[in-house]
Amino acid sequence: MEMMNELLEKYFRGETSLSEEKELKHYFSTGNVSAGHEIYRALFDAFEEEKQETASGPLRKVETRKRSVKHSWINLIVYSGIAAAVVLVLWIQLPKQQPDYAIIHGVRIDDPEYVQRYAEKRLSYVNEILKKGLRPMKSMETVQQNLQLLNKIKEIHDKIMQQEEPHNINN
Fold first, then answer.
1. How many angstroms separate the CA atoms of 5 and 47, rounded?
2. Exposed, middle or buried, 37 (CB in 10 Å: 0-12/13-18/19+)?
């Protein structure tokens, strides 16, 4: 009994050898199965029933088609072309509808001239904000230019100092 429990555990973990599986099949094919193992009897009986089944007709080999990478790329290009053509036709054929109104602060405005003026006013406001935001950048550019000039002055100073050093000629 203990040996059969160990064999069943190994069987369900997939660690049994062929001889151990034969031993299990023999155990369940005999009528002498313990009550604790009765639940597994149907499983092993089903295996035996499947062994007895025969094919109703001749068996034929089914070959799987391997798709080449080239074939996949061709399909991708064809389907992409079809999709692009459909989008193009729909874009050309569908009527272009533009709303005759705008919503400003939750209020519907039907006057296009008022909407145009309002949009220009808001854009000029945004433009002013951007100009104010970029002023520090312009001053940074000025500082950078002045630093470059200072670096050039330092380089010139270093060259002059090198020229003034006494030249030692050792013979």
1. 19
2. middle
Give the tokens for residue 111: 């006057």
Write the pLDDT tens digit of every residue in 135-145.
Answer: 777 777 777 88
CB contact set of 120 (below 8 Å; sequence gap of 6+): none
Closest CA to 41 of 54, 53, 30: 30
Cα–Cα distance, 115 to 101 (Å, whole number): 8
pTM tops 0.85: no
The Cα–Cα gap between 44 and 135 comes to 86
The number of beta carbons lying within 10 Å of the beta carbon of residue 28 is: 21
Measured distance CA(103)–CA(54) in Å, rounded: 77
Q: Which residues contact 126 (CB under 8 A, 6 or more apart)?
A: none
Question: Taking a C-beta distance cutoff of 8 angstroms, is the pair 44, 28 a contact?
Answer: yes
Phi, psi of 59 (to 5 degrees): -85, 140
Whether 167 has a pLDDT exceeding 70, the answer reads no
